[in-house]
Structures are given as C-alpha cells and as structure tokens.
From TrEMBL:
Organism encoding this protein: Hymenoscyphus albidus
Alphabetized UniProt keyword annotations: Glycosyltransferase, Membrane, Nucleotide-binding, Signal-anchor, Transferase, Transmembrane, Transmembrane helix
Record flagged with keyword Membrane: yes
UniProt record similarity statement: Belongs to the glycosyltransferase 31 family. Beta3-Gal-T subfamily.
EC number: 2.4.1.122
Protein name listed in UniProt: N-acetylgalactosaminide beta-1,3-galactosyltransferase
C-alpha cells in the first residue's frame, strides 16, 4: 500500500476533528436541553411519580432550614404552625434570639441562629463592607432594645443582608440536623406541602448528589439557578459536597447580588448540578395567583411563595383533612369547590378573574361573548379570558389562576382549557 501524502493526512485529520467537534457539541447541547426542558421529557402525569416509592422518605428524613429576618418576625409563627414536628426545623436570620425571646410553639422553644455572624467568623475583618456596617447597626439597635431603629434598618437593608445568610444558613442547618436524607432551604414566607415533597423525593436516591428547585436565569447552566423563594432541596450527599469548600462563597456574599444564584455557583464549583427535570413542582406564587399550566395539572406542587399570614391561614383552612400530595388541579378544586367542566355549560363567571396578570390585552372588545371567541381564536395561546365591561378590554393567558374577587369583570375557561387541564 502506498503511504498517504502529507496533504491527504492533513485533510483526513481536519475531517476527523470536524466530526468529533460536532459530536461533542451535540452531546453538550442535548445535555443542556435535558436540564432545561423537563416538560417534553417528563410529561403525562410524569411517569417517575406513578410507581411505588423507590427510596421511601419519612417526614423525619427531611431537615427544613428557614431564612428569616428581624423585620419578618410576624411570619415565623404562622410558618411554624404548618409543621407537625419542629425538631426538624432550623431558623436562621440576620439576628439571634436569646433565652426568653425564642419562638414558642406548644412545648418547644425554637431559636433563631445568626447566619451573618457565622459568615463573618469565616472571613477576615471586613471594615469597608456596606453590608457589614448595616448588620453592625442592626445588631447594636437590637442590643439597645431600640425596636424602631432596628425595624427601620431591617426594612431598608434586609434584602441585602439576606444574601449573607444563604451559605452559613445551610452550614448551620447541616450541623444542627445531621444525617438527614434531604435538606430544604426556604424563605419565611414560603409554604411547603410536605406530602407533595415526599412524593417527589421518594423516587430519588439521597445518597446521590441531587439538587432540586425551580430553575430560572439564562440559557446556559452557568447562568441558571434555583429560585430561592420557591424553595431549594439538596440530598444529604449533595449538601455534604457543596459545603466542603465555602470560603470563596462567603467572600462573594459581601458583594453578590443574589443569594440563590450564589448558592448555585457554589454547588457547581463542587460538581453539584441543578436538576431542572423537577422544576415544575416548585412554585413562586401564592395559591390564588399560581399559574396552572397544561403541562402539569396532575403533578404534585410543593411550594407557595409570598405568603402573608392571612394567605397561610386561608390555605391551612382549605387543606383541613388533606393528607395526600396536592396537585395543581387539586389546588383549583380546594379553592373553587367545583371542577372546570362547569365552564362547558356555564361559560361566564361574573366578578372573578381567572387570567391574572396578562401581557395579552385586546382593546375595543364590546361583549363578553366577543372576548370568549377571541380566546378561542388564539388557540393554544389562550386557555382563560377576562373581560372588563367598563374599559371593554379582553385579557387572555395560556394558563389559568384561581384569582380573587374582581368586581365588574367576567371570566371563563375555554373548552380547550377544560380538556387540557382536566385530563389526569
């Protein structure tokens, strides 16, 4: 056989390099698509939830870490009331309670641990940090018993101080609640449905590095993170790995913009990746403003966010006697007391709004019938419509919400929406 000429060798190498590059890009591209697009992969009542628990989870297998702040103390008691066993709960904040000032629930006293103090202990002295100065002023006002000044500082700077709680809060929770299979970090206005959480976690091996939450952000993994208000979950194996090297994250907390993004970056740095296949179970809205979409009506919903004490009380009343996981459409039934099929025979509902906030607004719509027909015309881009008589506007959305009383409005769900959302 004649040896290949140098020119042929070069061409052959270039072709092989091009093919390998395409293959690597394809693998990487599909990997990112898998992380970002759970709907196409795990639709149809999501098969991973239909079988028996693969890794059974008991309520005591989960440690709950709640972030709070001096300015949000009224919310903590309401959140604590939603748990049956507070020995699985740790509270972390921008201050610490002392003997006699701990939160009390039945026979238990629940202290708040100062996560910012823990962050600063892990760092050299920080004299030029705006956040540290705000924290020092808050601490001094609390020590002086000046609730007015402390409250003012908490309201003005609480959001920035919150960024410094995330990593130390996880460390405190992991230390105080050792050997849990799972750990969940949430805000003090996040309501957690434990039965739904257990349903999802019971299909996952806690000895593997799982990181779950509602993915938001950019289009590539490095720019995405789990939304903190919707709650984030680490398996015990994952959190152990995440907390193995936190020094850079503590430093970043002094100037970083988002605590949840900081947490995800720390996880990535320790080779723990957010699994967005489970994003649809985490929700960042109140029950009445939660968007019920056609890709998830039968799936368990784990969290609700921005919950006021009144929201919590109302939701607890709706949940009386409910011990099983709550799906998105069960949520509708709990509040509405009737199924969507009633819209087939009674298409118009007065003084209600099942659209909520909408970017699609059509003006000069003269009747409610016209608004309904317009929604039908929009196809899959419209499941619910709301017509306002005074302004003659028609609002539409490709989802539905429970909504609040809306005097002067007429709303409805088109037959396509009834079919898509009722097929469990």
């Amino acid at each position: 056989m004649r040896p290949l000429s140098p020119r042929i060798k070069i061409i052959t190498c270039l072709v092989l390099f091009h093919i390998s590059s395409i293959s690597l890009w394809t693998i990487h591209h599909h990997s990112l698509q898998f992380q970002r697009q759970p709907v196409e992969l795990l639709n149809k009542a999501h098969e991973y939830l239909t079988g028996s628990p693969r890794f059974p989870v008991h309520k005591n297998d989960i440690g709950f870490i709640f972030k709070t702040g001096y300015g949000n103390q009224d919310k903590i008691t309401a959140i604590l009331d939603t748990f049956h066993n507070l020995q699985n709960v740790v509270l972390i904040g921008d201050y610490a309670t002392r003997t006699g000032t701990h939160f009390k629930h039945k026979d238990l006293e629940i202290p708040v641990y100062d996560a910012i103090e823990a962050t600063l202990r892990a760092l050299p002295p920080q004299r030029n940090s705006t956040r540290v100065r705000s924290y020092e002023k808050l601490t001094a006002a609390i020590a002086a018993g000046d609730e007015e000044v402390a409250g003012s500082i908490a309201r003005a700077h609480g959001w920035e101080l919150d960024i410094m709680k995330w990593i130390s809060g996880l460390e405190i929770g992991y230390r105080l609640l050792p050997n849990k299979k799972w750990y969940m970090l949430a805000d003090d206005d996040t309501f957690i449905i434990e039965a739904s959480l257990i349903k999802v976690l019971s299909q996952l091996n806690p000895q593997k590095p799982h990181y779950l939450g509602k993915g938001i952000g950019g289009k590539v993994e490095a720019d995405r993170f789990a939304h903190g208000g919707s709650g984030i979950v680490f398996s015990g194996a994952a959190l152990s790995r995440v907390l193995s090297n936190t020094s850079a994250a503590h430093t970043a907390a002094l100037t970083g913009e988002l605590g949840d993004a900081l947490t995800t970056r720390l996880a990535l740095a320790n080779d723990v990746h957010l699994d967005e296949r489970f994003s649809l179970h985490f929700n960042g809205e109140r029950p009445r403003t939660t968007r019920i979409r056609p890709d998830r009506p039968c799936d368990p919903i784990i969290t609700f966010h921005h919950m006021s004490t009144a929201d919590i009380a109302e939701f607890q009343q709706k949940l009386l006697g409910v011990t099983s996981p709550v799906s998105w459409m069960v949520l509708w039934t709990l509040y509405e007391g009737r199924g969507l099929e009633t819209f087939i025979t009674q298409p118009f509902r007065s003084d209600c709004d099942h659209v909520g906030l909408s970017d699609t607004v059509t003006e000069h719509v003269e009747t409610k019938e016209d608004c309904r027909r317009l929604c039908d015309k929009f196809g899959s881009d419209c499941l619910a419509w709301t017509w306002t008589a005074g302004s003659q506007t028609c609002h539409t959305n490709p989802w539905i919400v429970i909504g609040n009383e809306a005097v002067g409005k007429v709303t409805g769900v088109v037959s396509r929406g009834v079919k898509l959302l009722s097929n469990c």
